Amino acid sequence: MTPGPGTRPADRVVVPGVAPAFARSAARWTRAYPRGWRLRRGHELVAVLADLAGPDATRVDVRTGLGLLRSGLVTRHRSGPPWPSRVGYLLLDTTLSDRYATWVVDDLTSPRYRMWRAVRSSWPAVLPTAILATGDAPAALRLLGLLVVVQAVALLASHPETVRRRAVRRHLVPGPPVVGPRGEQVVLGRTRRLAALPVLRGCLALAATGAVAWSAAALLAPVTWSTTACPADGAVVTCTDVGTAPRGPDVSAVVVAVLAVALVVGLVLAAVARRALRRGLPSLPGQPGREVVPPVPTAVTGWVAAALGVVAAAAAEAVGTWTLSLSVLAGPACLVLLTVGAVTLAAVRDDATVAFVDVVRLLAGRDVAVDEGEPALAVPSA
């Protein structure tokens, strides 16, 4: 079995006996056709166009090109589901009827499926941003920037094959046999699991960044919580207002105490985690149906972007630009995660075959299940 989708150059029509310049021109005009249709029949269409144009033609004439554009759009419309169902699939990830399984396979095998999937899943961010923009444009821009960073980190850290297999399980299993544009079929492949070591290293670096940045912000931010009496219908009620005021020494002492308590809690949880891992790691079951894979190379960029976002948010709070006061919660939480993560990394550093999901299950006190494989789109071996 060889990987099928997203691993070969796509949409290149090379036809023997046809001039490369004419083939490139024809390929540009036929972009209106669905990708699967082009991969299955594109070379035949280019050969016919070359025969009709003559041996000296170097490009498709405009009239023929416009006809190809119209036919391609009609084919794209007729080969897919109705627009209400298509919008539901693209925006809400709803399932389609089995009659459109080939259309779904064409979508899943696109080399840029992961990117388009991330873009399509970003639409819920538009509504809250639009609502905020009507009253507080700067806040809306900050929210939009935060959502863009989160989405970018998720996109960079996600593995294309993992995203595709998740979609295969949702949209094609169970279902009728279907063949993709390059011969891809739904087969039972080995379950892909992220290796624990690189994931723990990235999480530990992010937790360390958050612990330092948020703890410093908690000590330096000029934000205090104050309650004021607000009149309402003749009665007096208590409301909470957040303002930027000079931080007194008593507040700093409270913050230091909270951070110290978080550190103690982290050390206690780290001892519990160490005991659980020492007991569970040597007795992990064999996993013949599993494939332990490292994170994608772009995951490093995602972790760096997340760390920069944490530092930027903490700095904004430290200077009083951001008055949300997340550092009071984020600083202690990162300290706890840092201590537990350090102990966990030390426990598994000698075994590169341990999956991250196994570590999570052991820390949660759950049994490690044996993976039996998962459906995937691939070209079956001959």
Fraction of residues in β-strands = 5-15%
Radius of gyration (Å): 28 Å
* Number of individual domains: 3
Low-pLDDT ranges = 6-11
Distance between the termini: 8 Å
Order of strands in the sheet with the most strands?
1-7-2
Query: How would you classify the helix and strand content by structural class?
Result: mainly alpha
Number of helices: 14
Describe the structure.
The protein is mainly α and 382 residues long. The chain folds into three domains: 1-79, no CATH class; 88-183, no CATH class; 193-379, no CATH class. It contains 14 helices and seven strands. Strands 1-7-2 form a three-stranded antiparallel sheet, with helices on one face. A hairpin with a 2-residue loop joins strand 4 and strand 5 (235-244). The longest helix has 32 residues, at 249-280. Residues 6-11 have low confidence and may be disordered.
Short description:
With 382 residues, the protein is mainly alpha-helical. It has three domains: 1-79, no CATH class; 88-183, no CATH class; 193-379, no CATH class.
Chart the SSEs and their pairings.
Layout: E1 2-3, H1 20-29, H2 35-53, H3 62-79, H4 83-92, H5 101-108, H6 113-120, H7 126-135, H8 137-157, H9 160-171, E2 185-189, E3 191-194, H10 196-220, E4 223-232, E5 235-244, H11 249-280, E6 290-293, H12 298-318, H13 327-348, H14 356-363, E7 374-379
Parallel strand pairs: 3-6
Antiparallel strand pairs: 1-7, 2-7, 4-5
Helix pairs in contact: 1-2, 5-9, 7-8, 8-12, 10-11, 10-12, 10-13, 10-14, 11-13
